[in-house]
Amino acid sequence: MLRIEGLKSGYGRIQALHGVDIEVGQGEIVALVGANGAGKTTLLMTLCGNPRASEGRVLLAGEDITALPTHQIIRRGLAHSPEGRHIFPRMSVYENLQMGAAVSDPRHFDQDLERVLALFPRLKERLDQRGGTLSGGEQQMLAIGRALMSRPKLLLLDEPSLGLAPLVVRHIFEIIAAISRDQGVTIFLVEQNAFHALKLAHRGYVLVNGKVALSGSGTDLLANPEIRAHYLDGGAS
User: Fold this and answer.
1) In the chain, where are the structural domains located?
2) Of 50, 9, 7, 27, which is closest to residue 212 (Cα–Cα)?
3) How far is CA 234 from the centre of its chain?
4) Contact partners, residue 214, CB within 8 Å, separation at least 6
């Protein structure tokens, strides 16, 4: 579904990614973990076309999307739930979901809305409520639901557990598993909470200073002493 080959990217003279190679197979959940500043968010943003890759290629379902503008990338089946959620705070929950459906066939809107609200019953209770008045967990649900309204083939999730209480984090990861299992959406998950991410993922990559340092199955990475020492000890919750 996704192939990243020798990807280099950054901001101005600052290069954040130094030749990243990653594959995400159709139907997989693949996790990317790493410390703050490793380049995880830059990688997801580069996949969406902003910033542009300075070298390398991004292939989505076999098509080279590296040089495409963002709106064309989204129309080809990629959706992004960004770090910090970035919902529209003055818009209602319903209006936020409408924004997510902007690139989809409007004939599917009612069906897609029903599907998202089945995943997130709490949003159904708050359809007329402004997004900015929701709790942090509810805003994260809205951000993921908005991304799903575009009917993505590949869903990019950036730090979905950020700033949330442990019980809410567990619930969010249960929903991510359900999206993959029940809807067949391929998921590329960027997450600092390595325990939850690798426990959920089929495979994982570890990004260090803009380069892939380790890769393997989620189970193998969880058992790796180096991963445990740097990302897991004292962090499982």
Assistant:
1) 26-47+68-232
2) 7
3) 25
4) 205, 206, 221, 224, 226, 227
State the pLDDT at residue 233: 55
Fold of 26-47+68-232: Rossmann fold (3.40.50)
Nearest to 17 by CA among 208, 214, 230: 208
Cβ-based burial of 174 (10 A; exposed 0-12, middle 13-18, buried ≥19) = exposed
Structure tokens at 58: 């991004």
For residue 89, the SS3 value is coil
Q: Which stretches of the chain score pLDDT less than 50?
A: 234-237
Contact yes or no for 56/4 (Cβ under 8 A):
yes
pTM: 0.91
**DSSP code, position 213:** E
If you search the block for the tokens 């993505």, which residue do you land on?
A: 152
Q: How far apart are CA 101 and CA 230, in angstroms?
A: 39
What is the spatial distance between Cα 179 and Cα 59, in angstroms, rounded to a whole number?
23
